[in-house]
């Protein structure tokens, strides 16, 4: 009677490995794209979690804030999500609409395009910081007087840009105002009233 032999056949092992790999590739090929994207997203989130948070100090509307944030956080998201200053709006999130305009050391910037860590030690002013107590800023009052808004979503960014426009000396004519406010988009089309509001503040000679 022949002995039973235990044989490790390389050919069989190779064929088994090939079948396993083929099955895996077939399964991946048939997996919905949305599932694959979700898997990628989880990997990205785990990778993002590896970022070390770094200290950041900002002066926002006259108040000093000591924070710890991830390097990838934008100034816009920090203002809205960390400091709860939701007057600054997230519109296109690509620097094309101006809804997120704030002042950094007196200069208007699109906060969606500025990383928060780039503003260490700087002074930030948002729409919430324009008024003095219950007294509206002259530009805010002028926007109300001239109906410079409809839905109001773009209004905070419009007002912040308008204040800067006057301070920069770019509000001496309607043509100048239109040119230097062109980075702020109003989908409601309140542009004529916005121009009138800015022109009135410019002509009043008041401090903005």
TrEMBL record:
<dbReference type="GO" id="GO:0051537">
    <property type="term" value="F:2 iron, 2 sulfur cluster binding"/>
</dbReference>
<dbReference type="Pfam" id="PF01799">
    <property type="entry name" value="Fer2_2"/>
</dbReference>
<feature type="domain" description="2Fe-2S ferredoxin-type">
    <location>
        <begin position="54"/>
        <end position="130"/>
    </location>
</feature>
<keyword id="KW-0560">Oxidoreductase</keyword>
<dbReference type="GO" id="GO:0016903">
    <property type="term" value="F:oxidoreductase activity, acting on the aldehyde or oxo group of donors"/>
</dbReference>
<keyword id="KW-0001">2Fe-2S</keyword>
<protein>
    <submittedName>
        <fullName>Xanthine dehydrogenase YagT iron-sulfur-binding subunit</fullName>
    </submittedName>
</protein>
<dbReference type="InterPro" id="IPR052914">
    <property type="entry name" value="Aldehyde_Oxdr_Iron-Sulfur"/>
</dbReference>
<keyword id="KW-0408">Iron</keyword>
<dbReference type="InterPro" id="IPR002888">
    <property type="entry name" value="2Fe-2S-bd"/>
</dbReference>
<keyword id="KW-0411">Iron-sulfur</keyword>
<dbReference type="GO" id="GO:0046872">
    <property type="term" value="F:metal ion binding"/>
</dbReference>
<dbReference type="InterPro" id="IPR001041">
    <property type="entry name" value="2Fe-2S_ferredoxin-type"/>
</dbReference>
<keyword id="KW-0479">Metal-binding</keyword>
<dbReference type="InterPro" id="IPR036884">
    <property type="entry name" value="2Fe-2S-bd_dom_sf"/>
</dbReference>
<dbReference type="Pfam" id="PF00111">
    <property type="entry name" value="Fer2"/>
</dbReference>
<dbReference type="InterPro" id="IPR012675">
    <property type="entry name" value="Beta-grasp_dom_sf"/>
</dbReference>
<dbReference type="InterPro" id="IPR006311">
    <property type="entry name" value="TAT_signal"/>
</dbReference>
<dbReference type="InterPro" id="IPR006058">
    <property type="entry name" value="2Fe2S_fd_BS"/>
</dbReference>
<dbReference type="InterPro" id="IPR036010">
    <property type="entry name" value="2Fe-2S_ferredoxin-like_sf"/>
</dbReference>
